[in-house]
User: Fold this.
Amino acid sequence: MKIAVASGKGGTGKTLIATNLANVALKKGNVALYDLDVEEPNDHLFFKSVNMQKQAVEKMIPVVDETICELNGVCSQVCEYHAIIQLADQVLVFPELCHSCYGCLEMCPSKAISEGKKEIGVIEYGTQGNLQLIGGLLKVGESATTALIRDTKKVSVKESTLHIYDAPPGTSCPVIEAVKEVDYVLLVGEPTPFGLHDLHLLAQVLQEMHKPFGVVINKAVGGNTRLEDYCSEHELEILARIPLRSDIAGNYAKSILITEVSNEMHDLFANLLETVTQKVREAAL
Assistant:
C-alpha cells in the first residue's frame, strides 16, 4: 500500500502526519518512509538513530563536439525547454534548463552530441528495525526537483507492507511526480485563508488525476469552521482533526514524535491508518 501525504502549501503539517503515521505503522510491519520534499527534507530529524548512507544523483547534460557539429539547428528545434540553442557559429547549452530528455542527443544528424553528467543532489537512506527511511536532498541552485523525486522513489527497499510518501508542497510537477503512483492521498489542510485556498487547488489536481483522497485538518481550532464547511460543500471526507495545542507544537519543534508521548495522538493516528487501509482495500475489490 502506498500513501502520499500532501498539501497545497508549506507549513500545514505534512511531516508531522507522515512521520507519526509511519511510527504507529511500525508496530504492524515493515514501513518505508520516503521524504520527497527534496528542497527541505526533515523526516530524518524524527528518527535520529537511523544510520543514513548517501549516494550522489546525476542527470544527463548534452555535450557538443564542435569539431563535427554541422550547425544544422536540429537540437535547438527539438528542445522544448530552450536548454540548447544554436547561434551563428556555435551551440550553447544551459544545464540549469535541461530536463535530460535525450531529444537533442537522439535527433542530432551529425551525432555531435554526447552524454555528459551533472550532480543534482543526493539520496540518503537507512534502515532500523522495521523502518526504512529514504530521502532526497537537492543541491543548492539546482532546479531538477522532479528528477530527484523520481530517482528517490526508485531506491529499492526490502518488502514493506506500507510505503509513505511525504510529498513536497504545492500543485506543480514535483507534487504530481510524488503522488501519481500512490493508492491514496492524505490531503493536509489548515483552517486559514491561505490554507483553504491552496487545499482547494490541490483537491482539484487530485480529482483531475482520479486519485482517491481524504482531508486531515491540522491546527484545528474550535469555532473556525471555514475549512470544514468547504469540505462539506464539496463532499470531501474529513478523516482526522489534529488540534492546535502548544504541547503538540512544542514536541514537534523538538523533533519528538507526538505518538510517542501522547496516548491520545497515538490512538488518533492508529485510527487514521486503519481508516485509510480500509479505504484502499475497498477500492481494490
Q: What stands out?
A: The chain has two domains: 2-29+161-284, 58-119. The chain has a mean pLDDT of 93.
